[in-house]
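Translate structure to sequence.
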């Protein structure tokens, strides 16, 4: 049987994102959300939690964009002179050893506690820009998952989606041949997933990942219709970013107008009809 989790990332980031995600739930096919807790608009999660009990609500762990939950002097290695996360500099700071893992753990612990304080039973964990997969960082995620009994996570066993399945193996081979750095990052993400499974965590069978090889972008309806038609058997996960552009989003993100296109796609009846025609069961993380 074919099952699919459609998770909208970034609830709480801005009011425009919240509006787009709620529309994508109420009028569309989104079955799950992940929350950015360190922004003021996370307060809207109380209403979503009360009105959409069928939706799984996870946490979008984030120590690289915006301001922290904790005071800057409590997690000094994570913030700049303005008291904000390092943003684009986070990766270099992390791999040069300037980010302290103890600071990451304290901040993530605070984010989980804040989301729980809104009355949310946290269904799963994933990470902003997938930074949570970094060595050491991911161990903290697993540790906190055990502490708070959050035993489901996003799968990072990537299924590179292609329109042309006939030459799939050949195209994937040449992609990795031309992009050898991806071999290591994708292999390591898979390694982290095996570690999580051994630790008792549950996840989908695969993460549907378009646009790496061909122009199957998520802000195109044709991409989603093709994915639905060629979805593998088993439990699949795909994440999306529906939302409306506002000034706060412009401050932190480069993926802007495409989000509004994603709202249109998530609420498009053609997509809903295609999912039903292919006998795909939409599920949330609650069903894992």
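Result:
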């Amino acid at each position: 049987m074919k099952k699919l989790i459609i998770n909208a990332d970034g609830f709480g980031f801005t009011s425009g994102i919240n509006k787009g995600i709620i529309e994508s739930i109420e009028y569309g096919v989104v079955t799950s959300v992940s929350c950015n807790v360190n922004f003021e608009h996370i307060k809207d999660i109380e209403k979503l939690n009360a009105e959409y009990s069928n939706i799984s609500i996870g946490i979008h762990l984030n120590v690289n964009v915006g301001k922290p939950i904790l005071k800057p002097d409590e997690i000094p290695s994570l913030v700049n002179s303005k008291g904000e996360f390092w943003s684009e500099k986070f990766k270099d700071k992390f791999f040069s050893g300037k980010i302290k893992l103890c600071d990451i753990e304290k901040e993530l612990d605070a984010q989980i506690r804040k989301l729980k304080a809104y009355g949310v039973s946290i269904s799963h964990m994933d990470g902003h820009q997938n930074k949570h997969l970094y060595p050491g960082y991911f161990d903290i995620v697993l540790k906190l998952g055990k502490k708070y009994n959050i035993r489901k996570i996003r799968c990072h066993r990537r299924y590179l989606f292609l329109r042309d399945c006939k030459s799939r193996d050949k195209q994937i081979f040449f992609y990795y041949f031309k992009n050898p750095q991806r071999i290591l990052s994708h292999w390591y993400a898979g390694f982290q997933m095996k570690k999580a499974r051994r630790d008792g965590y549950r996840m989908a069978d695969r993460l549907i990942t378009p646009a790496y090889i061909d122009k199957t972008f998520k802000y195109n309806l044709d991409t989603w219709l093709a994915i639905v038609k060629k979805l593998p058997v088993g439990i699949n996960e795909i994440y999306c970013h529906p939302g409306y552009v506002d000034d706060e989003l412009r401050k932190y993100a480069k993926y802007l107008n495409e989000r509004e296109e994603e709202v249109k796609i998530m609420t498009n009846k053609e997509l809903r009809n295609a999912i039903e025609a292919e006998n795909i069961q939409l599920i949330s993380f609650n069903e894992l």
